[in-house]
Design a protein that fits this description.
It is a single chain. Helices cover about 65% and strands about 0% of the residues. By secondary structure, the protein is mainly alpha-helical. Helix 6 packs across helix 7 and helix 7 runs antiparallel to helix 10. The chain is globular and about 50 Å long.
Length: about 290
């Protein structure tokens, strides 16, 4: 039995704004990360489906959980992740946290303030970064920077898709108090262009999200794995540039995605910068060791 086929969006890791287990990541880590992504994609597709009723959405999410925990084999998209967790001795908690967020998507469609939005990110986004770090065997001390980066990525997605989310599934992640503060209304999200009030509101959210970047930027130098350091540096660079775009463009009417060429340029610069920084840091360490030995 499967519960997967009828609600899939067809979206894959190649369609995301940011790299998902790209070839930068060591091959031994890619399988569990992709299994986690595909589990999350299946849950997201169910929660965001425009025509499934809430009870059916929750049934699918429960099937994913039951399969993940070995109580069933009904949800094919959970089987690879279950296998990877068992093989590597990893906890299912990060995946269970994601399911909490997707269940919330089914039952909650408005967020009162920034605190509520960040609490949602705690379950919808932060578990992804934590899982990747756990797969690599990184210290839990890296979670703070990772949480900040994952919140940035999630909020970027919310701002990019604010019009589509409202029109298609009546879901609004823009905090209601921020809308009210700028004299905007939820109904403004249905327009083909943002009203001046909505645009001011969205740019205030972008500015607040930028405040998370200094903490997020500590992740690449904070991880031990060189390849993961490069991958996360690329993600930080792309996030910074997307926030800059969102500071000047209207997500209801303008393109706020990078071309492949532009994304490659940003990624290349971030990669080079990280490699130089890591090499310079190693040379400094080696020199200090030699000086101590002398």
């Amino acid at each position: 039995m499967t519960v997967d086929a009828k609600y899939k969006s067809g979206k894959s890791e190649h369609d995301e704004n940011f790299p998902v287990a790209s070839r930068i990541i060591a091959s031994r880590y890619r399988a569990p990360i992709l299994a986690f992504y595909r589990f999350a994609r299946a849950a997201d597709d169910a929660a965001d489906h425009a025509s499934l009723d809430p009870a059916e959405k929750l049934r699918i999410l429960s099937a994913l959980e039951d399969t993940l925990l070995g109580r069933s084999d009904a949800a094919a998209d959970a089987l690879p992740l279950r296998g990877e967790l068992q093989k590597r001795g990893l906890s299912p908690q990060h995946a269970l946290d994601l399911l909490k967020a997707f269940r919330q998507d089914v039952t909650k469609n408005r967020y009162a303030d920034w605190a509520e939005l960040i609490d949602y990110c705690r379950y919808s986004a932060m578990p992804v970064g934590r899982f990747v770090l756990d797969v690599h065997g990184e210290s839990k001390s890296t979670w703070i920077a990772s949480d900040a980066l994952c919140a940035v990525l999630q909020i970027i997605n919310h701002v990019q898709d604010c019009g589509k989310d409202f029109r298609n599934i009546d879901r609004v992640y823009v905090p209601l108090d921020e809308l009210a503060r700028h004299g905007a209304d939820v109904s403004d999200l249905a327009r083909p262009h943002s009203s001046p009030q909505l645009l001011a509101c969205l740019r205030a959210i972008v500015a607040r999200t930028k405040e998370l970047l200094p903490e997020a930027s500590q992740l690449p130098p904070g991880v031990s794995d060189l390849r993961l350091s490069v991958e996360t540096s690329v993600i930080v660079a792309l996030a910074r540039e997307l926030l800059n775009l969102l500071s000047t463009r209207d997500p209801l009417s303008d393109r706020v995605h990078f071309s492949k060429g532009r994304a490659a340029l940003i990624a290349g610069r971030a990669t080079a910068s990280t490699l130089v920084a890591r090499a310079t840091g190693r040379r400094a360490i080696y020199q200090a060791v030699r000086d101590d030995a002398a």
